[in-house]
């Protein structure tokens, strides 16, 4: 998520729910990544099953507008992914069922809906539960405890991971040390349940490829990894003008996305195909998908690549379809 995305949502949600904390400048890290698969663009023939090195999943944030507007319910996400887009694997966002982590009946219904539609539940993206890189030890321990119920929920849903935020305030060295501690402790809790703790480049230090890869190396646990996002590489936001929304001020310092993804892939257990806008040929205007997906392939990844559409020119459904077509085109070009 990015831009208005998670950051604005978290800011709004914090006002409505005391338990939901802002996860804007988040840091996420854990372990080396398994293999997963890819997709392509418009205009070119779609790849057939087995011809791509990756598989396609759908991140729930791609439908956040419909979900916030109550035009879509979290319980219907699996059916929507399968029936609207032909996608058979999904990635949840906890914001859309934030009070249901320990609701056994609700989780059972999610399992039933997924099974009825032949959909795999891959992971849960966690926001609003505190930063695992918080330099205040008491706050960091609270964040660890807050995440434990989501680890258990992920286990119930048959997911392989939860995506966490390891953000914190302070010097890069202090936040790194705190993130290594917080991620390590949560990873140790989740490992016996077979759940990975994975971190996304999500702004601030976590979007600095060298910093984040360094944290991962220090955590050095097989069930702690990353979820590289193609678009979240703003290390420092621009200073807003008086009265300007901070998130509309733009980015002052941007880390090279291709270098960042290359650094993150050794730890990747999932991949996020961020998309915003497309040109007339169906190519994403901010990211060279062929170039970045070649980096993913060359790293030996053979897992799922999750569509995370955040654009505004196309509606969410059209944006998801455009991203899927682009992934399929690129997948056909790169092969199995």
- The H/E string reads HEHHEHEHEHEHEEEHEHEH
Helix content: 25-40%
Strand fraction equals 5-15%
How far apart, in Å, are the first and last alpha carbons? 28 Å
Structural class: alpha/beta
Order of strands side by side in the largest beta sheet?
6-5-4-3-2-1-10-9
Q: Looking at the structure, what is the overall shape?
A: globular
Can you summarize the main beta sheet?
Answer: 8 strands, parallel
Radius of gyration: 18 Å
Q: What low-confidence regions span 5 or more consecutive residues with pLDDT below 50?
A: 2-44
- Number of DSSP strand runs: 10
Average pLDDT for all residues:
88
Helical stretch tally: 10
Would you mind describing this structure in some detail?
With 336 residues, the protein is an alpha/beta fold. 38% of the residues lie in helices and 14% in strands. The protein contains 10 helices and 10 strands. The chain has helices at residues 4-16, 64-68, 77-85, 104-116, 137-157, 172-190, 209-219, 257-264, 289-298, 316-334; strands at residues 55-59, 89-93, 120-125, 161-164, 196-200, 224-227, 234-237, 251-254, 271-275, 304-309. The chain has an 8-stranded parallel beta sheet with strand order 6-5-4-3-2-1-10-9, with helices on one face. A two-stranded antiparallel sheet has the order 7-8. Helix 5 (137-157) packs parallel to helix 6 (172-190), helix 6 packs across helix 7 (209-219) and helix 9 (289-298) crosses helix 10 (316-334). It is globular, with a radius of gyration of 18 Å. Mean pLDDT is 88; it is low at 2-44.
């Amino acid at each position: 998520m990015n831009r208005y995305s998670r950051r604005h949502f978290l800011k709004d949600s914090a006002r409505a729910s005391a338990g939901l904390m802002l996860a804007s400048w988040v840091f996420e890290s854990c372990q080396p990544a398994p293999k997963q698969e890819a997709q392509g663009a418009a205009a070119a023939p779609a790849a057939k099953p087995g011809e791509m090195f990756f598989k396609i999943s759908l991140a729930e944030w791609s439908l956040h507008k419909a979900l916030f507007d109550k035009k879509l319910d979290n319980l219907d996400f699996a059916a929507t992914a399968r029936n609207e887009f032909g996608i058979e694997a999904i990635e949840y966002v906890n914001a859309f069922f934030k009070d249901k982590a320990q609701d056994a009946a609700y989780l059972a219904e999610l399992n039933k809906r997924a099974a009825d539609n032949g959909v795999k539940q891959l992971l849960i993206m966690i926001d609003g539960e505190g930063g695992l890189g918080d330099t205040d030890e008491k706050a960091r321990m609270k964040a660890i405890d807050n995440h434990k119920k989501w680890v258990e929920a992920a286990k119930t849903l048959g997911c392989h991971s939860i995506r966490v935020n390891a953000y914190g305030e302070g010097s890069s060295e202090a936040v790194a040390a705190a993130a290594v501690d917080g991620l390590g402790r949560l990873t140790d809790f989740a490992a016996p349940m077979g759940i990975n703790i994975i971190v996304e480049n999500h702004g601030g230090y976590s979007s600095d490829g060298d910093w984040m890869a360094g944290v991962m190396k220090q955590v050095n646990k097989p069930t702690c990894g990353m979820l590289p996002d193609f678009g979240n590489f703003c290390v420092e936001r621009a200073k807003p003008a008086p009265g300007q929304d901070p998130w509309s001020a733009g980015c002052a310092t941007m880390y090279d996305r291709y270098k960042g993804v290359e650094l993150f892939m050794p730890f990747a257990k999932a991949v996020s195909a961020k998309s915003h806008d497309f040109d007339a040929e169906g190519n994403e205007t901010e990211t060279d998908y062929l170039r970045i997906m070649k980096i993913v392939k060359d790293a030996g990844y053979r897992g799922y690549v999750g569509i995370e559409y955040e654009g505004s020119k196309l509606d969410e459904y059209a944006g998801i379809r455009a991203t899927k077509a682009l992934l399929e085109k690129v997948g056909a070009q790169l092969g199995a």
